[in-house]
Amino acid sequence: MSVKASVGRVIPEGDLGRGARQRPMIDNTDPRAVRTRERLVAAFHEAVRVADPSEMSVSALARAAGINRTSFYTHFASPEDLAIYALGEVFDVVQSADIAMRTRHSVSAAEASQRALRDIVHFVDSHRAVYARLLGPGAAPRLAQVIADVFTEHTVEALGRMDNRPPGVDIALTARFLAGGVLGVLGRWLADPPERWPPERLIDALVLCLPGWLTAG
């Protein structure tokens, strides 16, 4: 399940009537649809600096993006679904890059893992005000769960392509462990003062937490 598949998968009870009007058109690649999603993502990133996703209204987000409510619902069922989409893109990019590097053996396994973690940490750090609300201690439970699920499934795909897994390794369990650990650490890190853990120190610490077989070779 990709981030796109997650959007609209679960519709909050209060949004059933509205969100069910149309199937979200997340896979629509028409330039106008793509531009609409880009405007909504930009509006969300601006709004989340001052409000949690659970406090956002469709009307306000649509207005900030320069579209109407009907257009919003053709893409997303709720502000939380928009949040999932906006956050999930970075995981899509990181997962693809990690798999590509491992598949081509263009770098060592340790370097592939370090680069993937570096991409995540630096991306989150560059949007700290946004991701502190999305991943921090105050994150909405449903949002946090879906993010963890998506990260886990990306990790399952990555682990499934590795040919040096020790016998008996449970891919799904390992993926859940890694996703929960990385997201949990990021959430706590975002809640602390930035100077406490510089990004590079955090990246090095996360790499040391990875199983040895994951970084071998």
Describe the structure in your own words.
This protein has 217 residues and is mainly α. It folds into two domains: 3-78, no CATH class; 81-215, Tetracycline Repressor, domain 2 (Orthogonal Bundle). It is 68% helix and 0% strand. The chain contains twelve helices and no strands. The protein has helices at residues 3-6, 16-19, 31-47, 58-65, 69-75, 79-104, 109-126, 128-135, 141-160, 171-191, 199-209, 212-215. Helix 6 (79-104) runs parallel beside helix 9 (141-160). The radius of gyration is 18 Å and the shape is globular.
Reconstruct the topology from this structure.
Blueprint (H helix, E strand, L loop, with lengths): L2 H4 L9 H4 L11 H17 L10 H8 L3 H7 L3 H26 L4 H18 L1 H8 L5 H20 L10 H21 L7 H11 L2 H4 L2
Helix pairs in contact: 3-4, 3-6, 6-7, 6-9, 7-11, 8-10, 9-10
Report mean pLDDT, rounded to a whole number: 82
- CATH homology superfamily of the largest domain: Tetracycline Repressor, domain 2
Number of strands: 0
Shape by Cα distribution = globular
Main beta-sheet annotation: none
Query: What count of domains describes the coordinates?
Result: 2
What's the alpha carbon Rg, rounded to whole Å?
Answer: 18 Å
* SSE sequence, one letter per element: HHHHHHHHHHHH
Our measurement of the CA-to-CA distance between the termini, rounded to an integer number of angstroms, reads 29 Å
Concise overview:
The chain has twelve helices and no strands.
Overview features:
single chain; 217 residues; mainly alpha; Tetracycline Repressor, domain 2; 2 domains; 12 helices; 0% strand; globular
